[in-house]
Queue: 2 jobs
Job 1
Amino acid sequence: MSKEIIRLENIYKTYKNGTINVEALKDINLTIKEGEFVAIMGVSGSGKSTLMNILGCLDRPTGGNYYIEGVDVSEKTDDQLSQVRNKNVGFIFQSFNLIPRTTALKNVELPMVYAKIPKEERRCRAIELLNGVGLGDRYHHMPNELSGGQKQRVAIARALTNKPPIILADEPTGNLDSKSSIEIMEIFRKLNKEDKNTVIIVTHEHDIAKYTDRIITFFDGEITSDKETENMKQEAL
Amino acid sequence: MLFLENIKLALTSIRSNKMRSFLTMLGIIIGISSVIAITSIGDSAKATVSKEFESFGKNNVMIYPNWRENPDMTISPNAAFSQEDIDALSVRFEKELAYIDPSNNIQSETTVGRVKGKWAVQGVAGDYDKFKNMNIIHGRMISNSDLKGKRDYVVIEKTGAKFFFNTENPVGRTLNLNVNGNMREFVIIGVYAEEKSLFSGLMSTSAYAAYSPYTSIQGDLEINASMLNIYIGDGYDIKQTSDAMVNYLEKIKGIEKGFYTSDSVESQQGTVDQILGTLSLAIGAIAGISLIVGGIGIMNIMLVSVTERTREIGIRKALGARTNDILVQFLIESMIISAIGGVIGTALGAGIAVIGMSIAGAELVISPLVVLFAVLFSAMVGMFFGIYPARKAAKLDPIEALRYE
Ligand SMILES: Nc1ncnc2c1ncn2[C@@H]1O[C@H](COP(=O)(O)OP(=O)(O)O)[C@@H](O)[C@H]1O
Ligand SMILES: [Mg+2]
């Protein structure tokens, strides 16, 4: 079988708001293998984003251990975590988070700037990636000149620049119409099936979750179910 | 991170907020331009003044009773300088004393044909033009034999020549001068041109300038001078020699020590230089304060910019920017704003100095060292006042920055 890429052991996350403590994650144990396509579902406030931020090394857990490819991330310094975000994970946000007043091309180049990749190479790779998500004619558009679906495609291209093995997307279709949502999900499916990336997507739409192979459901900071989807069963046949 | 990338980023950010960037720079522009203008004007003034003093000759010394320290001292007739004193000094300081005159002068109303005017005639010894910078354009200067022979010769200034004789060259013609109540006829033996100087405007009188042997304009009276005008020979220490002369005069005239004093162009120039130096330092310090104010302006705007761009910083961090990458990005931005301000300020300050000096009619001195220092210093101001905002940006937590609205 393929080896594990993500392992969470007894992960806790507690937010302190004055005197009130919010336990956003309670004793999460979870293993995800290389090449999996996972959906995380659950009602609003159940802790999905909190989990994704920890998986993406944007945030640190209050307790527990997090291993990426067997390496304990909890031990790393802030700058080492920056490195992990730069090289190992590609993060896609619901609100796109493109840098304003900066062209699509420059946005896609940015992670490579921090990876100290020379300019020529950066340019070539960014063009290649934008072509890959079907934006071959939008290199020099600013974010405010793009539609929601186009913005999200730029964001996906940007997440892929340093060829990260893990792709995390927190409600990537949350701000999109159904047509754009389908296009975006097709891109994710291709990334998983053809490029063998590990893809984890947060969604609360079953239509979206149906694209994936495994659905993990959250409720009140805990995992309440973890099942393979029809896709997997069909493949097994 | 890549340095060039950061410079481009900073320039883009400065360009996308042109008005704000300009206002931010304004403090630096004002500070640097005043520093440059003031130091340039100060240096130019110093150079001009020292040129002015050099026209008198640095080795020029005056000896006179010390009025300044004893304003109400009584002068015995013995205290005034006589020809005997001059002769005694010339013998005793044969080598050191290059030139001496008793600094006497007369004023005379004169008529030539129907032209009426006033002359101010300065008594000199021979070869005065070898010590004081003079431009003889016709004829010659008073010589030592003119002095010994008490000849009624006169060397006049060009404008006086034109006024009375309607020619620049009236050499050989005569001028009636009133010497102690007697009208005497002086022969014009030379014409000189006064060089335009900073002081000539200040010293302008209605009289035309001229030089005669000091013996001639003394008439029948004995020399009875309150001041000696002396040039010290080359290679002798001016202060030491003039002190020795003062001591000697006090000794031979039987006068108490400290009665006479000497004043040299060298020491006067030192005093003026010191005053100018202190002045530019003081004004420079005020300009320096405006630089600090400019720096605080930069800090203020950078703080606003960091807050405005919190989300952008969050995105950059999410994509792999390290603490230092963000720190350097904002530091370079504030340094560039400040350095651009420094360059504009330098140009402006130099412009002000050029205009100021051309009005004063003096030569401009702009030290490249000062320019280099100004630009570097402004960049440093930018860096110093950029540190706090940049650190604030760099230390932002990625997830909190991304959540910022
Ligand atoms: N920064 C925060 N400060 C305090 N509480 C937070 C913060 N972020 C999330 N929470 C709380 O943690 C819980 C989980 O939130 P989140 O992970 O965003 O849920 P989901 O993404 O599933 O909607 C919620 O109760 C939310 O109010
Ligand atoms: Mg969420």
Note: Chain B has a mean pLDDT of 87.
Job 2
Amino acid sequence: MEKKNGKRKIYMVIMRGLMGILFIMSYVLVKGIPNITWDLLSTTPSYIDGSIGILPDILNTIYIIIAALAIVIPLGAGAAVYLTEYAGNKKIVSVIEYAAETLSGIPSIIYGLVGMLFFCQFLNMQTSLLAGALTLVIMNLPTVMRTTQESLKTVPQSYREGAFGLGAGKWRMIRTVVLPGCIDGIITGCILSVGRILGESAALLFTAGVAHALNGFFEGLNSSGATLTVALYFYAKERGEFGVAFAIAAILMVLTLLVNLLAMLVGESFKRRRNT
Amino acid sequence: MITVKDLCLWYGNTQALHHINMDIPEKAITALIGPSGCGKSTFLKTLNRMNDLIPGIRITGEVCYNEKNIFSPDVDVNMLRKEIGMVFQKPNPFPMSIYDNIAYGPRTHGITSRVKLDDIVERSLRDAAIWDEVKDRLRKNALGLSGGQQQRLCIARALAVSPDVLLMDEPTSALDPISTSKIEELAISLKEKYTIIIVTHNMQQAVRISDKVAFFLLGEMIEYNDAETIFSMPSDKRTEDYITGRFG
Ligand SMILES: Nc1ncnc2c1ncn2[C@@H]1O[C@H](COP(=O)(O)OP(=O)(O)OP(=O)(O)O)[C@@H](O)[C@H]1O
Ligand SMILES: [Mg+2]
């Protein structure tokens, strides 16, 4: 009887939590979707006719994701390969793994502060998407590294022995046998990073800024620009434009759902491929 | 062809091989027998330096292959392993197509011509007596084969780099009796072209296929002789005890 009651209570708590989440989600969608118009998506904000468009923010988000991933994937996957396949000193490896673990728990605003001091001021990049992207690289490096490492560990030792036994050198062995086996880890790391970048505001406020100019990719990297999440903060807090803010919120929420769904699908398909 | 002189090997501080001396004949099957943990695999892996990968390993003595010490600094380990191939206890095909598995070695050593590769793949699969079973599914994933087929595929993969010597570490211990006898027949047919050194726990198998037998115990080689001599009149009491099943 006692046990049954306990189970019931837990069930109730979970249900209440789920209802809360559902409520927030539907509230944002109901408030946001009516405000999503083609004009909003396809124009830049103009002070002259007082209109707001989030095209620059959408582009900035895409640019910063591309730039951050382009740097963080080779860096993170490379570090993971080095640590698991080359590094001889296991103590140093575990210290680095521990540091990475710790790094991923630090509040993002601290990354923003450090990024601002180091990239924007010390390296003189000013407030720019590039500085923001580099800050995101540091934030997501541990994630990509860890997911890659985890999947490297699932590559059976016998594959490595098989390749060596045929006279393959270390680098050929890694390229042909190890890396194909850890693609799933790299992709998982990417997707998690994209999700995190979509949701990031604090670190980017400091480093990438809040401008809304329409730029090409390289031009954009060198200038200040708001991502969708930063724009959400900006329109809600500085301008009191809650309609726009909710529209962005709805877009972000849908995107986040899609990213998570993608992560799940990718994980599933790799699991299936591994089992056949 | 392979001459082992006073070989000792340590894993860290524990000595796993003690002063091994042995002359391994060409184009014959040499079987290594002995109880579990006596150093058979360790010895086998020393012959193509597969245990270079193990941290904390130390080796003294010589292994001469074609009159050259394989531990001398100017030996190219990758070339050595091309000439002294290895088949492992558990079949370990790569998660690629059957074709790519066989072509892996030749590609590693610089063969890119499609015609040549096709030829090597067919010849290796024929030599490993598995061609008829896989010729219609060369592009299918090798992991879809049965255990016995996978092991013959691994033998074909090893043959594809045209080695001189084939090291086999209990190649049939994970297989059913039918696959086992296929691999035994295969080994016998391969000894026309290759020198084979095989570790086995199965006395009958050693009787059936080997020309020479070496008996290992606690990291020492106790006795090494023609298979018939070892099995009919072993000169050491411990060998006799082992092959008559008194321990092991
Ligand atoms: N990587 C290693 N590190 C430390 N010790 C090892 C290592 N590999 C093997 N040994 C030890 O060396 C000894 C010989 O091992 P080996 O694997 O060569 O035996 P084996 O004769 O092949 O046994 P089995 O018949 O069970 O395969 C054993 O005592 C084993 O514990
Ligand atoms: Mg063994």
Note: Chain B is about 35% helix and 25% strand.
